[in-house]
Design goal:
By secondary structure, the protein is mainly α. The chain is built from seven helices and no strands. It has helices at 2-28, 42-54, 58-61, 65-91, 98-121, 138-148, 150-164.
Length: 177
């Protein structure tokens, strides 16, 4: 019993840290591609330029429309959820987070499939829509995948936790006849 409680609390803390850390990443980096650049100081724009050049991230260098649509969803749907999830998981035992967490996890994992597929399999030659920008070697592709993969793996862990944890399963209350 005590080990199960400790494991659950440890996972809740990990998820709380994930959602807490996602707030500045989303606001300061990800949303630079969908919000007016004037909202961001030159230092943050330079940080984004450095990242895209250093890691050869074609999705943030010249974001395709489909990728921008994912970032717009991150702004409208995910960003408001991050502080709520942060609170729920740091507090612990908030059974009401189950359904929104399942929706978040399914949505996020679904968006990561085309992102990871693009990073792994896209032809980034000059003939492609990415105009030669992107990883050139398999090692560079794996580096990019390792940056994006936690945003698939942690929601997968969240989904399994919400679906499998006996603590988060709702017990149906039956009316007496």
């Amino acid at each position: 019993m005590m080990g199960t409680l400790s494991a659950r609390r440890g996972l809740e803390w990990l998820l709380g840290l994930y959602f807490f850390s996602h707030i500045p990443i989303t606001l300061l980096l990800d949303l630079q591609t969908v919000l007016p650049r004037e909202l961001y100081p030159i230092e943050l724009r330079n940080l984004m330029k450095w990242y895209t050049k250093e890691f050869k991230d074609p999705l943030l260098q010249e974001p395709p429309v489909w990728f921008k649509s994912f970032l717009f969803c991150e702004l409208v749907f995910q960003l408001p959820f991050f502080p709520i999830a942060t609170y729920a998981f740091f507090k612990g035992g908030c059974k009401w987070i189950r359904t929104p967490a399942i929706v978040y996890a399914a949505h996020t994992m679904t968006t990561l499939i085309p992102i990871l597929s693009t990073l792994l399999f896209e032809d980034f030659s000059k003939a492609s829509g990415f105009k030669g920008q992107g990883p050139k070697t398999f090692h560079e592709r794996l580096t990019l995948v390792s940056i994006y993969a936690p945003y698939f793996l942690i929601p997968l862990m969240l989904l399994l936790f919400m679906l499998r944890s006996p603590y988060y399963k709702y017990e149906e209350k039956r009316k007496k006849k």
